Amino acid sequence: MISERDERGADDRVGTEPTTSGDPDHAPGVSGGAEDGASGGAADGGDPDEQPRRSWVVVGGRNLPLAIGVGLVVAALFLVTLFWHPLAFTTLIVILTGLAYVESNRVLTPVGSPLAVPVLVIATLAMIGGAYQAGHGGQVIGVLVLVLGAIVWHLGDPDRRDVTRRLGTTVLFGLWVGFLASFAALLVERSVAGAMGVLAVIGAAILTDVGGYAVGVPFGRHKIAPSVSPNKSWEGLFGGLAVATLAGAFVLPLLDDRFTWQLGIAIALACGLAGFVGDLLESMVKRDLGVKDLGDLLPGHGGVLDRVDGVLVALPVGYFLLEIAFRS
Questions:
Q1: Any idea where the domains of the chain sit in the sequence?
Q2: Hey, which bits of the chain come out as E strands?
């Protein structure tokens, strides 16, 4: 998936200055920005005739065909499980959160912020499984497991040090990944909106992302939060929201007549903005920790969390919006 989020390959390297007015430089799992990906021609002794081909293959510092292929596989897995059975989709969410913890821990350990992965996995099973089986009460039980489990984990560590930082990092990632992801289980199993609600919420976040990239690269001039994500622009944000709004108003009602065009617009704006905040949240965390990406599990994309940061924040916003719309 090519999105405005792709600027972070430059954004999240501490001290790196933006090189474009758009957002092409995020290349999870690879090094260098757009200028690095297209530098394989005469400048480094390569064949000048190969430069146009390499410029097409490597976009924003990553292998574009590989990224598209991986994105299609992930999208297919997402859609098949979503519309097959709620339990299959919930199981996929649990697996992805577990993988996100493992690869994030591999990145964070060298910078002194290791995660208590066993606690996170158990707590996330409680949060997502609890949401699936018991709704909000199950989520609360999972949060209690997370906080108490993290405390006990560090109390039992004979080599404990930097407890505040490490305990805080574990709880943060548990709430950020596990708790927010549990709203996907609520949407698919316990919400009136069901699978179409999940698709609408996640689609709004993704379309805002993709549209923001398409508009932000050529037209982005006015930066939103340069100290956090230097290349994110107001032009890209408004362009992305416009794309999501058009889809929400005209496409969503065709897929499910329960969704009016007004509700489609509301979902697009609310979840699109929430997804954008999620992008900034991850950029802020990575900049604070001094890391470029939080994994490399998805070739051409980076880590799981690098790909779903915006979606995670959009899920609770979309859930409560749809609950109000369908139950009022």
A1: 85-190, 192-328
A2: 58-59, 62-63, 223-225, 229-233
Question: Which candidate, 267, 256, 247, 254, places its Cα nearest to that of 322?
Answer: 267
Q: What is the CA radius of gyration of the chain?
A: 20
Q: DSSP readout, 96-111?
A: HHHHHHHHHHHHHGGG
DSSP 105-131: HHHHGGGT----HHHHHHHHHHHHHHH
| Residue ranges of the chain with per-residue pLDDT less than 50 | 1-46, 48, 50
Q: What is the pLDDT of residue 23?
A: 44
Token representation of residue 193? 């909106």
What type of residue is 45? G
Residues 213 and 310 sit within 8 Å (Cβ to Cβ): no
Identify the pLDDT of residue 28.
36
Whether the Cβ atoms of residue 59 and residue 259 lie closer than 8 Å to each other: no
Question: pTM for the complete prediction?
Answer: 0.82
Distance in angstroms (rounded) separating the CA atoms of residues 83 and 94: 17
Report pLDDT digits (tens) over 133-144.
999 999 999 999
Instruction: Catalogue the long-range contacts made by 30-36 (C-beta closer than 8 Å, 24 or more residues apart).
Output: 30/61, 30/62, 30/63, 31/61, 31/292, 32/61, 33/9, 33/60, 33/61, 34/10, 34/59, 34/60, 34/61, 36/61
Strand partners, 302: 298
Distances (CA, A) of 309 to 178, 188, 256, 280: 12, 19, 27, 9
Structure tokens that stand for 297 in this block: 């599990």
DSSP reduced 3-state for 229: strand
